[in-house]
Amino acid sequence: MPDLTTALDAVTLFPDRARVTRRGRLTLEPGQHRIDVTDLPLALLPESVRATGRGTARARLLGLRTEMRHYVETPVEAVRELEARIQALQDDDADLAARGEGLAKSIKALDALAAESAVFARGLVLRHRTPEDQGALYDFLAAREQTLQSETLALARRRRDLAREINRLQRELAGLQSARPRQRWAARIEVEALSAGDLEIELTYLVHEARWTPLYDLRFTGEELEVTYLAEVAQGTGEDWPDVRLTLSTARPALDLVIPELDPWYVGPRPPSPPRGKMVAARSMAPQAMAAPAPAGFSLDLDVTAEGPPEMAFLEAPAAEVSESGVALTYQIAGRADVPGNHDARKVTVGTFRLRPALDLVTAPRREPVCYRRLTGKNESPFTLLPGSAQLFEGDEYLGATQIGHTAPGQELKLALGADERVRVERKLTARSVDKTFLADRRRIRWSYRIEVENLRDVAQTVLVRDQLPVARHEQIKVKLEAADPKPTKQTELNQLDWKLTLGPGTRQVVAFDFSVELPREMVVDGLPG
Fold first, then answer.
1. Given this model, what pLDDT does residue 72 score?
2. Do residue 386 and residue 512 come from a single domain?
3. Between helices 77-114 and 131-176, what is the axis angle to 10°?
4. Which end of the chain is more exposed for a tag (fewer CB within 10 A), N or C?
């Protein structure tokens, strides 16, 4: 039976690989048949290949196996076309090189003829030639030399352009070719047809060299934060994915699906250390960790209908349909997508949604006397925001790039919007003293600080002021907050202090606190303020 022609239908893309679905249809007569699906990419994981079928023919699957096929020519059509174009251009360049050699010989012969000036002069003396004949000969030699030089120059330019085009095509070919371009996987499906009819074969397999990473565009409009969730998809399997149904999955099939068990925890005397030379040899023989094979993924077939935009409306980006599969989420991209097989990245829109975050200011003047604006809002969308890069805008003004951490639906999202120059903050050391009376051979050092926050805006501002006390790492060192006005809103076990202040328009507020460190008289401690 001839090879079954299949077409790519759907791709489920994971963060580090992809599950590809191909479909093909054929007509079967009763009996056993071997159906070959060829030209499968080298990036295929053979243990992941699965086959199913349905149709008017009653049939059963007898077996499925994969094998490596070797070709005289590269089977990928795009690669074959590039190789043919490169070969044709190289042939054209060879023709031009031959013409260049002919021109060089003509110029050499012309130069030899022009060098015989003594013979031409003798002809004039012997009256075998007239001065007019001699002038016409010189004019012919000059005109012929100019023609040959012009042809040589034009030929060199054409060869230079050809070399550039050949180099470009060779780079493109290198991007399409895999490490072993004349080999491809093939799948052999053995079926038994119990009745005649049509049968549609569905072949699925996992491939590596495929990925998707999240990207975000964030635009703050003063009251809302518009989040555009993008996905950058790329694959280098050498096989293009034209017009496929694309599903993005947050699952990671590369993780080992084995529940860890605890082994006995043995303790005993340490064995004597071997000589250094033997240690180095032992290390060099240590086995390398091998990654466990990944199980086959599972894709969901979802119907998505995109509504057409109304007249004179802004360009809309249809949102992906979200589904839950176990502990992972899948995003069915609206429409169909084209993904080339040469690692060229493409961006698709997962979805667009809006949040209503709260805006406040955060400052840590001990590190930097600047108030930073911060957005805090709950992710009320159905999308899980994976860690990725985000481009942040306020209105039409670009603020810069930031990072978004893993944020599930219902979790809080925090973003920094940059410094607010109209809310000023200043931190000063107002006092430092050492107790002159020593108790039990100990001494106490005391520091006093003052933080002043001023709101120069015409609206009220909420400011979170952060500071800290030292953290003792020795039992003989005691750190104590002696006084604080106002009292901190929060104090952590690591002595981090928070004050939540509300400043009216054009007002200022002061935070003052004192702390002490008590330690043995002769102990030298690093890290204390001056």
1. 62
2. no
3. 160
4. C
Share of the chain above pLDDT 90, in %: 51
Contact 388, 403 (CB under 8 A): yes
Q: What is the average pLDDT across 96-125? A: 76
- Residue 159 DSSP class: H
- pLDDT of amino acid 515: 95
Long-range contacts of 173-178 (CB under 8 A, 24+ apart): 173/79, 173/82, 173/83, 173/86, 175/342, 175/343, 176/76, 176/78, 176/79, 176/82, 176/238, 176/341, 176/342, 177/74, 177/79, 177/238, 178/41, 178/42, 178/43, 178/237, 178/238
Does position 35 have pLDDT exceeding 90, yes or no?
Answer: yes
Residue in the block written with tokens 């893309």: 13
Spatial distance between the Cα atoms of 271 and 282, rounded to a whole number of angstroms: 16
Q: Are residues 372 and 334 in the same domain?
A: yes
Give the integer Cα–Cα distance in Å for 102 and 115.
Answer: 20
51 and 169 part of one domain: no
Stated as kind and residue range, the H or E segment containing 220 is: strand 210-220
- pLDDT at residue 291, as a whole number: 35
- Is residue 263 a part of any domain in this protein? no
Integer angstrom CA distances of residue 202 from 8, 23, 388:
10, 5, 34
In a domain, 295, yes or no: no
DSSP 31-51: EEEEEEEEEE-TTB-GGG-EE
Q: How many domains does the chain have?
A: 4
Question: 172 and 252, same structural domain?
Answer: no
pLDDT digits (tens, 9 = 90+) for 340-361: 888 889 999 999 999 999 999 9
Structural contact between residues 349 and 233, judged by C-beta atoms closer than 8 angstroms: no
8 Å CB contact between 230 and 76: no
Q: How far apart are the first and last CA of the chain?
A: 88
Mean pLDDT, the chain, rounded, equals 82
Total residue length of the chain: 530
Distances (CA, A) of 211 to 14, 18, 214, 294, 322: 6, 7, 10, 15, 19
CATH code, domain with 482: 2.60.40
In a domain, residue 434? The reply is yes
Is the separation of the CB atoms in 156 and 15 below 8 Å? no
Q: Which two tokens stand for residue 191?
A: 């079926």
pLDDT band at 490 (very low <50, low <70, confident <90, very high): very high
CB 214 within 8 A of CB 231: yes
Tokens of residue 100, six digits = 């260049």
Asked which of 46-60, 148-162, 296-310, 382-396 is least confident by mean pLDDT, the reply is: 296-310
* pTM metric for this prediction: 0.61
In this structure, what are the phi and psi dihedrals at residue 166, rounded to the nearest 5 degrees? -65, -40
